Amino acid sequence: MSKKRIVILGVWLLWQFVLVALADEVPWIVEKNQSKILLIMHYGREEISGATELVAATGVVSNGVVITCGHIFLLEDTTQRLATITMVLENPFTGLRVTQRDLRSCEENPYVDIAADFAIVVLNEELGQGVALTTTIWPGTSVWIVGYPHGEPELAVIKGVVKRTTEKTVIIKVEKLPEPGMSGSPVFNEDGRVIGIVNAVAGTSYVIAVSAEVIQRNLSALRCYLK
């Protein structure tokens, strides 16, 4: 074997070792970011039919706002918008608890992108910058989904691997599917940056996430929310 091949093999083996080490250290991602991941309870009413919906979900603070999935603000299996009756956002680790009364007065708040299935919630309270988003996503990258299953105040972590990306989504193969309540969960890469948020599952082993690129594009267009 040539020296060049030996060097290449050595670099590859070292990278695999680093990936394994990072995988074993996943708790640091949770510990570092648990104060920025929120448990959301939303109860709303569809104005025409009067139908109501109570949904538990997960959200994450980024760029000073809360980002979550859009379908928690819609009547189940429809595109009909729910008028919020009650919404509570909590962080069990910091004691933060806010309601819709604490939402900033904006033309549309929460802002819901029905097509992409994500939402942006802006609060009067200063939330800080939160987690960093990244648009750099590579197939084969290890990722971790972190959220609150069933509305319980305890974080769950699901490991996965990016299989492919589309214009608006990231397709992730996971060890197990997220449970109800984990819609809106952030998807972290090895650097602790968010590549997307969970909004759907496909089959028995795949998760679909809205890409951070789509979210960033909308945040840029909604600068009035951040003033």
Biggest sheet layout: 7 strands, antiparallel
- Mean pLDDT across every amino acid position: 86
When the domains are counted, the total is 3
Task: List low-confidence stretches.
Answer: 19-24
Strand order of the largest sheet: 5-4-1-2-3-7-6
> Which structural class best describes the helix and strand composition?
alpha+beta
Put simply, the count of helices is 3
* Percentage of β-strand residues: 35-45%
> Could you say which overall geometry the principal axes of the C-alpha atoms support?
globular
CATH architecture descriptor name of the largest domain: Beta Barrel
| DSSP strand tally | 13
| Terminal Cα span | 62 Å
CATH fold type of the largest domain: Thrombin, subunit H
User: CATH superfamily assignment of the largest domain?
Assistant: Trypsin-like serine proteases
Structure description:
The protein has 227 residues and is α+β, with helices and mostly antiparallel strands. The protein folds into 3 domains: 3-32; 34-121, Thrombin, subunit H; 142-216, Beta Barrel (Thrombin, subunit H). The protein is 17% helix and 38% strand. The chain contains 3 helices and 13 strands, in the order H-H-E-E-E-E-E-E-E-E-E-E-E-E-E-H. The strands form 2 sheets. Strands 5-4-1-2-3-7-6 form a 7-stranded antiparallel β-sheet, with no helix packed on it. It has a 6-stranded antiparallel barrel with strand order 8-9-10-13-12-11. The longest helix is centred in the first third of the chain and has 22 residues, at 3-24. The radius of gyration is 19 Å and the shape is globular. Residues 19-24 have low confidence and may be disordered.
